[in-house]
Amino acid sequence: MFRSIFRAGLALALVAFAALAPASAQTADPLASWNDGPAKKAIVDFVAAVTTPGGPDFVPPAERIATFDNDGTLWPEQPVYTQLVFALDRIKALAPANPDWKDKQPFKAVLEGDMAALMASGERGGVELLMASHAGMTAAEFSRIVEDWIAKARHPRFDRPYTDLAYKPMVELMAYLRANGFKTYIVSGGGVEFMRPWTERVYGVPTEQVIGSIIKTRFQMRDGRPELFRLPQVEFIDDGPGKPVGIAARIGARPIAAFGNSDGDIEMLQWATMSGRRGLGMLIHHTDAGREYAYDNQAQFGGIAKALEAAAVNRWTVVSMKDDWKTIFAFDK
Amino acid sequence: MFRSIFRAGLALALVAFAALAPASAQTADPLASWNDGPAKKAIVDFVAAVTTPGGPDFVPPAERIATFDNDGTLWPEQPVYTQLVFALDRIKALAPANPDWKDKQPFKAVLEGDMAALMASGERGGVELLMASHAGMTAAEFSRIVEDWIAKARHPRFDRPYTDLAYKPMVELMAYLRANGFKTYIVSGGGVEFMRPWTERVYGVPTEQVIGSIIKTRFQMRDGRPELFRLPQVEFIDDGPGKPVGIAARIGARPIAAFGNSDGDIEMLQWATMSGRRGLGMLIHHTDAGREYAYDNQAQFGGIAKALEAAAVNRWTVVSMKDDWKTIFAFDK
Predict the structure, then answer these.
(1) Left if phi > 0, otherwise alpha if psi is -120 to 50, otherwise beta: which for A297?
(2) Which of A30, A49, A261, B152 has the fewest CB atoms within 10 Å, i.e. the most exposed one?
(3) Which residues in chain A touch residue B271, judged by CB atoms under 8 angstroms apart?
(4) Does this entry carry the keyword Metal-binding (chains A, B) (predicted)?
């Protein structure tokens, strides 16, 4: 009984929704999470300019390429990079099978939660942790490990899955650009195989449009099946000047819009905006300690100060999360 | 007067064409350059199987990925690789600015047309030629050099631009796969920047779907403009076991169909067909000395014998150009 009433109500609701949908779709703001202001205006004006046929800044759809940094641009990078959290969790999970780690840095520091000793292990320590957690299995196995982890792990402050923390205004922006004929790419210093299991679901970006750092893999046959085995060796670092290099190698065409948040994005924004034709460069500035984080510079994230300077020189739009974003996360309000 | 009659005739012709088009489109064979036989049947059966919703071999469109070797698979590799012809032409063009090349191998051999001395310079000589011809300029400059060269150079036997030599059956096959929801990628041992200037026009494959060997590039500012400078250092060789590695790094998903012609394609075909789900592996066998070339093995091209053996073991379809292809080039007949 309850069920059939429920069904009738649902059917009515669907009819009502279908009747309303076309009108609301026409009037809905595709950038509803952006406050009116210079940042939103810069986006809308740029898209209008490059999509107006016959206009001086018109760009054919095939050349409408937009590239997005990930950490700090599409989701938080605080209190530490998500991929580093993953690496530390992996080390803990692998510790029983590696008893020597109890007395060996940087593993000892991870297992004892000794951040000072961890930091003291420096870049070499970081690479050792990265390799121990990211190599030594097949690409398919690693994908499954990432999928399992990202389904369960929760951000320490927001107590939600990391994939819930995609910035709503950026997800809207990517969809808005795609609706206007753009291809949207992620171009991150993070590992490409760490991002691909969830980028389509979270950002609408398919695997082949995810560019990132890569470790070496070896093709091999095992039990009559081909597999790609992940080796403890870095193949390519997709950060800083590596970003335009990665874009050229993988896309083979130059973006006209680029979005970042730190010094490691400067070259990508230069590449997108200093070509002689109209480009859009945008820096996400973390100014909202209440709803997310506020930081102007922090060594762990490679710095922001130079990017802000470059933004002033190159007329890139600086987005203040506090002022320009009505909503930050989909779960807000 | 002539012009207006011409226009009226053109208008009539367009009307007639528009009236005919739907009918002819329905009846036209998308693989018209393929003779009926096991190869054509293997293609049609495979496509039907993976595109039939609810069928046991159905593959969703997003996972329909097909990868194609280029040299010897999509266009001729005889009498030598086209990119090698390009390299030798570049050395000759650059010789006046490099007077020391007159007495220095392997350049001396190139300038004197001394093939024996050239071969004697071995792999090291080959790399030196490649680097002298392919590095030392920006990526944009190199693209223009390739475009200029490919517009003028002619194949020694067919006396036509190399881009006229795309195999018509393979161009049809790529279009047929795309019409059935596939994404078609080129995965070549050749340099990615050598192919991208013309792959869209010739094969319908956009730059971001061209995977190939890569040399190192450096991001730099010159006169206030960012540029990518090509360095004389190999970054990645997209051949043999490198093909699945390149596919994984760039596409991030596994192909279900792969097309090659030599030992350097074995791993790519293994990767595409030995996944547990239905796959199509196909080897183009050069059996037509009259219309193209006939060769069963040739050291210059890395061998074919092992690929033919692997085809027998793995049930890959071997295409005999003589028997399976009605037409080889668009300019035939």
Answers:
(1) beta
(2) B152
(3) 219, 226
(4) yes
φ/ψ of residue A206, rounded to 5 = -70, 160
Question: Domain with A34 in it: what CATH number?
Answer: 3.40.50.1000
Contact assignment for B270 to A192 by CB distance below 8 Å: no
Quick one: pLDDT at residue A14? Answer: 41
The token pair that represents A159 in the structure block? 């107590």
Closest Cβ–Cβ partner in A193, A241, A251 for B219: A241
Q: Does A196 touch chain B (CB under 8 A)?
A: yes
Amino acid at B138: T
Residue A74's domain comprises 30-78+165-324
Q: Vertex B318, ends B315 and B324: CA angle to 5°?
A: 135
Residue with tokens 């190139």: B110
Domain count, chain B: 1
DSSP-assigned beta bridge partners for residue B71:
B75
Query: Is residue B148 in some structural domain?
Result: no
Residues B87 and B133 sit within 8 Å (Cβ to Cβ): yes
- Token pair recorded at residue A206: 């398919």
The answer to the question of residue B101 being in a domain is: no
Query: B182, B228, B269, B313: best mutation site toward chain A, by most A Cβ within 10 Å?
Result: B228
Residue A142 belongs to a domain = no
Rounded distance, CA A213 to CA A243, Å? Answer: 9
Q: Does B221 touch chain A (CB under 8 A)?
A: yes
ipTM of the modeled complex: 0.89
Domain membership of residue A295 (yes or no) is yes
- Of the candidates B42, B111, B17, which has an alpha carbon nearest to the alpha carbon of residue B281? B42
The predicted-structure confidence for B142-164, as pLDDT tens digits, reads as follows 999 999 999 999 999 999 999 99
Residue A258 near residue A272 (C-beta atoms within 8 A) = yes
Chain A residues touching residue B252 (CB < 8 angstroms): 192-193, 196, 207-208, 210
Residues of chain A contacting residue B244, judged by C-beta atoms under 8 Å apart: 219, 226, 228
Residue B135 to chain A, least CA–CA distance (Å): 15
Distance CA A88, CA A132 (A): 10
Considering only the beta carbons, identify the residue of B244, B252, B271 that sits closest to A207: B252
pLDDT in tens, B38-82: 999 999 999 999 999 999 999 999 999 999 999 999 999 999 899
Alpha carbon of B197: minimum distance to chain A alpha carbons (Å): 9
Q: Which of A228, A269, A274, A316 to mutate to test the interface with B (most CBs of B within 10 A)?
A: A228
The type of residue at A93 is A
B263, B307 Cβ separation under 8 angstroms: yes
